Structures are given as structure tokens and as C-alpha cells.
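dude i think i finally got it to work??
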Amino acid sequence: MITKATFDFLKQVALHNDRDWFQAHKGDYECSLKTVWNFVGALIPEISKIEPAIPSDLNPKDCVMRIYRDVRFSKNKAPYKKNFGIAISPKGKNFDGAGFYINLEPKNSFIAGGSWMPSAEHLKSIRQEIDYNGDEFHQIIGKSSFKSYFADLDREDVLKTSPKGYLSDHQDIEYLKLKSFTVSHRLKDEEFIKPDVINYVLDVFKELNPFIQFLRTAIT
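look at this
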């Protein structure tokens, strides 16, 4: 399970984001990382039952993203991330398509999924799928149980104008203008450290999976 110590470590990373501090607390990092690996290891076989495309023996280490930031092209030179990112797909974190995601970060933890910043080819295919099968799309995202976790699709990446090939008065233009197709469900830190959090995460993923399948159908 995720522990309070994991969130405490991440809080300290945010306060002391430099290499000297991190090296002095490498043991805390390794302990937190193992906690996250164990958490993901318990999730994977159960997620595989929901989505058989995900191998039940997928290595948790292949799903947890590095805490080290690539600062080469960033104005922010802080060397470490303030979160543990967990991406679960048929190929773990190294996938090109739709998948499940968990973000562990003090006061910014959430369960999510979908297709984040897809390639131009995939983006075109997803928009086309929504255009052709809008009824199915709305049945998925409009379901009451789905909306109990996800109010709507995330809207952090949106075109200012209509995408090429679609009129501005298209009935789904607000979705077609999206550059990412993801949904998120926020969770408080204390909820992530509850003993039954795995069951809760699985319930969310069950509701999310039809949306994942819609996106996968679009790009295959």
C-alpha cells in the first residue's frame, strides 16, 4: 500500500529539490519507490482481469516513471519530479495509445486514463471515431456511473479553432478541438493510504475501461 511516508518524502523533494539533499536522502527515495512498486505489483493482476490486453505478469518497474527530470530544454532546472507517475498499458509506461494512469503527489493525486498528446495520426483517428460514432462516445461518457468519477474529459490541451475538416458548428466540436483525450478523478492523500485503496482504484478503472477501448478502437 501507499504510505504516509511516501507522501512525506515527496513533500520534502518539493522543498529541497537539489542533488545534495537527494543524495543524502537516497534511502528514503528507495524505500518510497519500493512501496510504489509493491502497490503497482498488487494492481496489475487485477487490472489484467479488467483489460486482458495488459499482461498479468507485467513488471511494476516498467510502469513507474523516473523521478529524474530531463532539464536540457526546460527553464525549470529542478532535477527531480515532485510526484510518482504510474502508467499502465500493455507495454507499461512505454506505450503509444490509450492506457491507465495514477499520479501520486501531495495534494495533487489522481486516477486517470486515456490518450495523452497522441501523435498526429492517432489524433486524427480519434477525432474521426468521435465524428463517426458520436452516439457510442456519448453513451460511454454520459453514463451516470462514469460521471460519478469523471465530470467530463480534461480540457488542458485545446485548439483555439476547429480542427481541419470539421465545421465550427459540429455537434461535438468541443471534443474534436481537444489535443488530448483523458479523464481524471482526484483523490486526497489520506484516501490513497487507506487499506482498501486498491479496490477503489479498480472500481474507477472498471468505469474508465470502455472509454479506453473506444480510443483503442479508433487507433487500431
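Strands lie at 84-88, 99-104, 109-115, 181-187.
im so relieved honestly
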